[in-house]
Design a protein that fits this description.
Distance between the termini: 35 Å
Shape: globular
Structural class: alpha/beta
Largest sheet: 5 strands, mixed
Number of strands: 5
Radius of gyration: 16 Å
Oligomer: single chain
């Protein structure tokens, strides 16, 4: 399974591609950040993010896209920008028919570190270890994108089984 993880943001949108299956060593295929200038017009920033995501999709051909689920923050302006960047990533994937999964920050932290309250340094350290890297990816947005991809690879099989069970149960109820 090849997954593009996206840690959405207007200034720095982390992107990382991981390949593998649950229970086996994972491989980092690529990691980076799509950057936009903070003083640019919002529309131009969103187009720049779209171009960056499209380039990653073209280059790495992921089977899934995992995006951080936007959660409520105290700073409405920050959460709006994050939501807008997140929507761009989802749109790019949907346009190509690539399934999108949303994972909360605490879900990703728990999957990668064992604790939903882990800090950025702990996430970076575990991503480094899990992907057998020489050093943590920088900036943290890049490490977070890889963590999203890892989380999806590890959780997708269980989520798929749950969805199938719910669908089966629903179809039996209609008979």
């Amino acid at each position: 399974m090849r997954v593009l993880g996206v840690d959405p943001g207007l200034t720095r949108c982390g992107v990382g591609v991981v390949e593998g299956v649950a229970g086996r060593p994972l491989t980092m295929i690529g990691v980076g950040v799509v950057r936009t200038p903070a003083d640019a017009e919002l529309g131009h920033r969103l187009v720049a993010i779209e171009r960056g995501i499209e380039e990653w999709l073209d280059t790495h051909q992921p089977e899934f896209v995992a995006v951080e689920r936007v959660f409520s923050q105290h700073n409405v302006r920050t959460v709006m920008g994050t939501a807008q960047a997140s929507a761009v990533a989802m749109l790019c994937a949907a346009r190509r028919g690539i399934p999108v999964a949303l994972h909360t920050p605490s879900e990703v932290k728990a999957a990668v570190t064992g604790s939903g309250r882990a800090d950025k340094a702990q996430v970076g350290a575990m991503v480094t270890r899990l992907l057998r890297l020489a050093e943590p990816p920088k900036p943290a947005d890049a490490a977070d994108a890889l963590a999203l991809a890892i989380c999806h690879i590890w959780r997708a099989p269980a989520q798929n089984r749950l969805q199938q069970a719910v669908a089966q149960h629903a179809s039996k109820g209609r008979m």
